[in-house]
Amino acid sequence: MVELKRRPYKKELSEHVVECHHVTREADGLRYIEMRVLNLSKDGIYTEELTDLEACIVAMTGKVDVTVGEESFTQIGQRQDVFDRVPTDSVYVSSGKSFQITTSDEARVLIAYAPSNKSLPTALIKASDNTVEHRGKYQNKRTVHNIMDDQSPISDKLIVVEVYTDSGNWSSYPPHKHDQNNLPHESFLEETYYHEMNPKHGFVFQRVYTDDRSLDETMTVEHENVVLVPKGYHPVSVPDGYDGYYLNIMAGPIKKWQFHNDKDHEWILSRD
Hints:
This is 5-deoxy-glucuronate isomerase. Keywords: Isomerase. It is an enzyme of class 5 (isomerase). Pfam families: KduI. This protein has a single domain (5-266), classed as Jelly Rolls (Sandwich), CATH 2.60.120.10. By secondary structure, it is an all-beta fold. The protein contains 1 helix and 26 strands. Strands 1-23-20-25-15-14-13 form a 7-stranded antiparallel β-sheet, with no helix packed on it. The termini are far apart.
């Protein structure tokens, strides 16, 4: 079994570009998702040529310029910290295209990838284009920024969302899964979580498990860790005194988020 939790590292790709995470299909046991997290300092330049992958470049913090062919998007990004709790800007790039990210100051970007051979228009996804949802009640409250949901016409396979979970609350809860290609009842989507904490020395717990418990792993997840969810239920618990943030990438054979709740815990949804 591939290890599900990944800690950040520092790999200098160029003088002003440091890679903190790079999840690939070949190395990490996923079929539909890849991801990369980059820290760029002043005058940082990162260039990539996509072949069989589409990509969504999320300006997590700071401001960046993104160039795709003849199109340029300047000074995108809306926050200095993810816990500013406002949506940010992103750029979608389809397979077969090249892109360049540059910055005149410090910035962090997350690049989400999914296999695709479809040629689609490059798109700037403005912060104002994000739909914002407030989900849950009691100790199950979270705020969702939908960058590209399963109804978005922008991407072929990619779904990208940000989630804020307040202190003492649960998220991705009650536990749900989407690992069966059985529409309209359930879809097959792999998923990754990129986590941040406020304050940064905090932690959350995340469990990934299947009905038969052939996969059953509970992890202490710290600031900037990544969790892979190849299958199974995947709830997150945020301790008192800390707030949690994660960015989800989801992708599968069909871009449809149709999940199945764990029947043992679904009852909490019907509480008064």
